[in-house]
């Protein structure tokens, strides 16, 4: 199937889709649309709509969105956090953002199923590029990530971050708290709770960032929840746990209901560690644990979480050197895409929703 062209609107998308599916496809594309074939990420001016692309070529950006740092009239900025210094077992998550971008055009190539919505006709999403930090000065990296995130958030733009190891969520949480106040509620899909104690200051540790976050009041454990856990901790710090066994013994409706009840309408940060998935569905990750969620379970649960008042989201721990046939990066790109569908519906259906401004929910 060929890529759909859509400059603006559903009718245009349908018209061009039919055109491309016909035998006259090349002669039917004219004018400006013809000139915008390929490399739309750097050539397209309008942040809305699609331009024609080959899914296997051209400039990489997440879901073929404009690659820019101009956030004028933008709803969502996607950024990469190419960090893996905190990894305790298998490194490689620094390659995660680029690998997710690489597979993402295939995900964006069709309307989402089953909604069939024209996602990018309504939601202005750009790829902001990656966070830059100096690997030779590791103690400066947390601040570099926080500062990078704040530049985006402070422009009232929703931030979707692609990791990178899970430590990056800690400076990201700090950035979101600086904008929205604390504490935030946390929804965490993960094999690991990441609340293991670490009393040393300034550790860069991807197993303790939520220990810090609870202790510092960045997140409220009483309104936070972790899904897919299958590693032990003597103290989960009051965060509600739906472990992998619980998820497997219940329906996706049950899981979603527990999550919705836990966070209510509070400002909520969503972190999706790809190792929440079973290694069969996400082999390319730093610390895989058997017995995890399927991709089907995860997508079904996420689809039911559209009413939540999200302030930010990240997808972390994709380690491409350990991946097979892009299974893991495809899962990450799909989760990001599905999440953007939720935000699109917020914008279109829930008129009270304002990206980056959640004062009406406090
Ligand atoms: Mn994990």
Automatic annotation (TrEMBL):
Top-level taxon of origin: Eukaryota
Cited Gene3D superfamilies: Ureohydrolase domain
Family: Belongs to the arginase family. Agmatinase subfamily.
PANTHER family in the cross-refs: ARGINASE/AGMATINASE (PTHR11358), GUANIDINO ACID HYDROLASE, MITOCHONDRIAL (PTHR11358:SF26)
Record keyword Disulfide bond present: no
Example GO molecular function: agmatinase activity
Organism: Rotaria sordida
Name of the protein this chain belongs to: Agmatinase
Keyword Transmembrane: no
InterPro entries, per database record: Agmatinase-rel, Ureohydrolase, Ureohydrolase_dom_sf, Ureohydrolase_Mn_BS
UniProtKB keywords: Hydrolase, Metal-binding
Protein's GO biological process: putrescine biosynthetic process from arginine, via agmatine
């Amino acid at each position: 199937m060929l890529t759909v062209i859509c400059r603006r609107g559903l009718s245009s998308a349908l018209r061009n889709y039919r055109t491309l599916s016909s035998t006259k496809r090349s002669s039917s594309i004219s004018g400006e649309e013809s000139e915008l074939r390929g490399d739309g990420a750097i050539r397209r001016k309008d942040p809305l709509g699609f331009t024609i692309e080959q899914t296997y070529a051209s400039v990489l950006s997440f879901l073929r969105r404009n690659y820019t740092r101009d956030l004028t009239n933008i709803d969502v900025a996607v950024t990469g956090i190419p960090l893996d210094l905190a990894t305790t077992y298998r490194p490689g998550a620094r390659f995660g953002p680029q690998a997710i971008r690489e597979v993402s055009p295939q995900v964006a190539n069709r309307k989402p199923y089953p909604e069939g919505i024209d996602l990018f006709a309504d939601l202005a999403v750009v790829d902001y590029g990656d966070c830059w930090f100096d690997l030779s000065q590791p103690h400066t990296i947390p601040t570099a990530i926080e500062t990078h995130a704040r530049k985006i958030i402070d422009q009232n733009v929703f931030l979707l971050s692609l990791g990178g190891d899970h430590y990056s969520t800690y400076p990201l949480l700090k950035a979101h708290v600086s904008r929205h106040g604390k504490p935030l509620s946390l929804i965490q899909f993960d094999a690991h709770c990441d609340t293991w104690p670490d009393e040393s200051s300034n550790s860069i540790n991807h197993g303790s960032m939520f220990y810090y976050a609870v202790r510092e009041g960045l997140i409220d454990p009483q309104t936070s929840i972790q899904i897919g856990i299958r590693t032990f901790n003597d103290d989960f710090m009051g965060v509600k746990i739906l472990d992998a066994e619980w998820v497997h013994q219940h329906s996706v409706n049950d899981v979603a209901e527990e999550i919705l009840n836990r966070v209510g309408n509070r400002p909520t940060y969503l972190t999706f560690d790809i190792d929440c998935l079973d290694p069969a569905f996400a082999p390319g990750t730093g610390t895989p644990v058997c017995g995890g969620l399927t991709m089907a379970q995860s997508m079904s649960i996420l689809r039911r979480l559209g009413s939540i008042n999200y302030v930010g989201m990240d997808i972390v721990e994709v380690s491409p050197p350990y991946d097979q046939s892009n299974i893991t990066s495809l899962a990450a790109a799909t989760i990001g895409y599905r999440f953007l569908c939720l935000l699109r519906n917020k914008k279109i259906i829930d008129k009270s929703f304002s990206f980056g401004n959640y004062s009406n929910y406090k």
